[in-house]
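General statements about sequence and structure are easier to judge against a single worked case. In the encoding step, the backbone of a single protein was reduced to a row of integers, each denoting a local shape. The record that follows shows the chain in one-letter code together with its fold in token form.
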Amino acid sequence: MRMTRRVDNVQFLPFLTTDVNNLSWLSYGILKGDGTLVVVNTVGAVLQTLYILVYLHYCPRKRAVLLQTATLLGVLLLGFGYFWLLVPNIEARLQQLGLFCSVFTISMYLSPLTDLAKVIQTKSTQSLSFSLTIATLLTSASWTLYGFQLRDPYIMVPNLPGILTSFIRLWLFWKYPQEQDRNYQLLQT
């Protein structure tokens, strides 16, 4: 984005859902007293928020981006208000917040599926990031194993779609290999 000063091929929704996801898991980690969840999701929320600000800076249609952001933040605040004010039992709060976090994690992993339909239609993986696919696979697998180690289904189960969608994207990279950048080819001649 910084190099091209454009956001044409970059989808906003996956990064917004990731930010909401980090904030949700941060709350779950605080309630559960899990330092790993707190530290990782604090860093993730800060980085995703910075990405959103950069995206907003380069986005020509700021209103749509701000509307999506405000909508998801509203849902997040309503959810937090519900959990912290209306669910007095800490164990019930932890279970319901875990379910809430699980839904957001699944939506985060499924949000790039619109890109997959475009890849199949155009038979081109230019709109996909190989490094992001690998990072998603490793992150999903790590959180799944961490959840398994803790015997926490709210951490383990929702990361399985991340593994599945990563393998689907890797298959698409194999089926429709990225062409070399034309500017790079011109420099070679």
Notes: The chain is about 80% helix and 0% strand. The radius of gyration is 18 Å. Residues 181-189 have pLDDT under 50 and may be disordered. The longest helix spans residues 62-86.
